[in-house]
Amino acid sequence: MTTAAAALPVAVARPRPSSAGMARRVHDVWSMTRRSLVHISREPMQLSDVTLQPVLFTVLFVYIFGGGIPIPHGSYKDFVLAGMLALNLVTSTMGTAVGVSTDLHEGMIDRIRSLPMWRASVLVGRSVADLITSCLCALIVGVTGLAVGWRPAAGLAPIVGGFALVLLFTYALSWIATCVGLNSKSPESAASFGFIVLFPLAFISNAMIPTQHMPGWLQAVANWNPVSAVTAAARHLWGNPNPSAAVHAWPMQHPVVAAVGWSLLILAVAAPLAARLFRRRTIE
Amino acid sequence: MTVREATRGWDGPAILVEGLRKSFGEVQALRGIDLEVARGQVLGMLGPNGAGKTTAVKVLTTLLAPDAGRALVEGRDVVHSAAAVREIIGLAGQSAAIQEELTGRENLEIMGRLYHLTKGESRHRAAQLLERFDLEDAADRPAKGYSGGMARRLDLAASLVARPAVLFLDEPTTGLDPRSRMGMWEVIRELVGEGATLLLTTQYLEEADELADQIVVIDHGEVIAAGTGEELKNRIGGDVVEFVVADRTHVDTAVAAVATLGEGSPSVDRETGQVSVRVGAAGSNALVDAVRALDAAGVRSEGLGIRRPSLDDVFLALTGHGADSAPETRGRRGRRSGRPEHAGAR
Fold first, then answer.
1. Which residues of A touch B80 (CB under 8 A)?
2. Residue A41 lies in a domain
3. Is the pLDDT of residue A11 over 50?
4. Which domain holds residue A116?
């Protein structure tokens, strides 16, 4: 608080943030991020989405389905790891929807809005916290994969790039989840987002099995599903078997471009929408 | 920031409200409210659910934009200088704004960080407030396990992290058991002793009387009375003698018998046979007189007693209707939620 601000009879409407203003915003976002991280660490069930579940899914898929699904030019475990990464990260965004909905109970909104802080830091802080837990999840999937015999055939940079691509997509998706959380009347209804949207999104794709064996119409859906582009891109970068390369759909021919494109498109639509929903929810 | 820093360069009242109006669609929540609170004073805003109390607090804390009129907090306009207002206010709303998964200490420390205190300052301030609000033993347990009274104290502590010059408490004791209410009163009294300006809303005359220097009574979004607790109680007619007539056919006889005891005519609830007489400062003498008068008239009564005036009595005296007869549309919540029995008694 400066006396200069106090002396202003009428503040200029919404000044653009100065560099000091930006520093404050970063500070606010980080404070909210830490708050969310502590919150997440206190909810063992919520955290199990990104710790226990990836280990379980990866082991289950490799040993139960692995034997029954032939993969041209490679093994199922080399094929499925990108899919496991996508499956775990995509479904983990349900936690974002539930978390946003939980955060925004009436009293908390009023308290936050009466603070001299950047209001959007409530949303940005949570999305950063979720990105951090997503990184943890990705690490666990990778280590579990190595333990069960997954071997990438690429240099360090493309391997990291593959992980980064899936994380970018997850981050974009978390903004859709944020919109869902903002629109939900209760955390419970936010959770149904997972079953209605995220599971079909993850399963109707090339993540678990090659799309070539699906009925024709479903193949079309699966080939244009952003999740397929993301897993195909990761397989491509990791040098793992990628049967989708034989599919003629544009995203399967250009998986990296498609994955980045989908992510940016989703971000460009969902983040401003979340900001609008947040304003509507917080201003009567 | 100290109160002195926050209020530099402004000699007017800490809170100044002129002609404030706010509607939600058809419902007029505020119909032109004027208020003035001197620095360091406590204003009690008394009214039933839906009277407009929370709306007024939301406008003053920059959460809602008014339709007309203006409101200044320490000279800063809540609409045009909202950010400057937020620097110097604290708000504890009706629903506790604490993060249940976090411990009491973490809740306060994060609040400090959001007010841009340094890490060390935040930690120090949190420890200070935990001690002060008697939460030290529970400081490192998740707030989920706190009792209602503890949660409210933590919430209040959170609103005080940045040492606000002006504090808004929206029904700070609603829903608390009597012991926790007393504890809250104690805490609020101490705060006031430190020079903060305080606006608190309440449904309890007793609470406003205990804590506030000035009381405004609001109803239908308008200020219908203002004054000190003493002044208001005098207007209301002080204590109330109350009894129930066992035989409903004798209600009129009973009313006639006790009519001379009070100031104004007794109020009667024909359904329950309950008669209330405002007896001013006559106190227990009035009680004895009532017993004699009813005995002489041959009316049998039940539950004869004397009590302090309630919000309903205030409303009856000021508006001619009870606090509960307001139309349902004005309140968003259930009208009776969180009311202790004594305020609801008629």
1. 10-11
2. no
3. no
4. 47-283
Compute the average pLDDT of residues B134-139. Answer: 90
A182-209 average pLDDT score: 88
Q: Do B97 and A28 touch (CB under 8 A)?
A: no
Higher pLDDT pick, B318 / B81: B81
pLDDT of residue A3: 39
The CATH architecture annotation of domain B3-232 reads 3-Layer(aba) Sandwich (3.40)
Q: How far apart are the first and last CA of chain A?
A: 27
**Is the pLDDT score of A14 beyond 50?**
no
Q: Is A8 on the interface with B (CB under 8 A)?
A: yes
- What number is the average pLDDT over the span B236-249? 82
SS (H, E, C) B331-342: CCCCCCCCCCHH
Classified by CATH at the fold level, domain B235-337 comes out as Alpha-Beta Plaits (3.30.70)
Quote the pTM value.
0.74
Give, to the nearest 10 degrees, the angle between helix B148-159 and helix B178-193: 20
Is the reported ipTM for this assembly greater than 0.85?
no
Side by side, the strands of the sheet bearing B267-269 are B267-269, B274-280, B239-245, B301-307
Distance CA A263, CA B191 (A): 51
In the structure encoding, which two tokens stand for residue B157, read together?
């502590």
For residue A5, pLDDT over 60 is answered with: no
Report yes or no: A3 at the B interface, CB cutoff 8 Å. Answer: yes
Pairwise pLDDT comparison (B181 vs B284), residue with the higher score: B181
Model confidence at A202, in pLDDT bands (50, 70, 90)?
A: very high
Q: Where residue A90 falls among pLDDT bands split at 50, 70, 90? A: very high
Count of domains for chain A? 1
- Give the burial class of B179: count Cβ atoms within 10 A of its Cβ; 0-12 exposed, 13-18 middle, 19 or more buried: exposed
Beta bridge partners of B245: B301
Question: Strand pairing partners for B20?
Answer: B33
**Closest to B114 (Cβ–Cβ): which among A3, A28, A38?**
A28
Total residue length of chain B = 346
Say if residue A222's pLDDT is above 90.
Answer: yes
Region at B39 (left for phi over 0; alpha for psi -120 to 50; beta for the rest): beta
Contacts of A6 in chain B (CB under 8 A): 8-10, 75-76, 84
Domain assignment present for residue A255? The answer is yes
Alpha-carbon distance B329 to nearest alpha carbon in chain A (angstroms): 17
Compare all CA atoms of chain B with the CA of A28 and give the residue at the minimum distance: B114
How many whole angstroms separate alpha carbon A217 and alpha carbon B220? Answer: 61
Q: Helices A106-113 and A255-282: crossing angle, nearest 10°?
A: 90
Residue A178 in contact with residue A126, Cβ under 8 Å? Answer: yes
Looking at the DSSP assignment, which residues form a beta bridge with residue B70?
B18
Note whether B267 and B276 are within 8 A (CB). yes
What is the pLDDT at residue B342? 37
User: Residue A6: inside a domain, yes or no?
Assistant: no
Q: Where are the domains of chain B?
A: 3-232, 235-337
Give one DSSP letter per residue of A150-196, joined into a string.
----S-HHHHHHHHHHHHHHHHHHHHHHHHHHHH-SSHHHHHHHIII
Cβ–Cβ contact A265 with B under 8 A? no
CA nearest A91: which of A184, A8, A203?
A: A203
Collect all residues of chain A within an 8 Å Cβ-Cβ radius of residue B60. Answer: none
Q: Is residue A11 part of a domain?
A: no
The CA distance from A142 to the nearest CA of chain B, in Å, is: 30
N residues, chain A? 284
Question: How far, CA to CA in Å, does B320 sit from each of A74, B141, B266?
Answer: 87, 50, 12
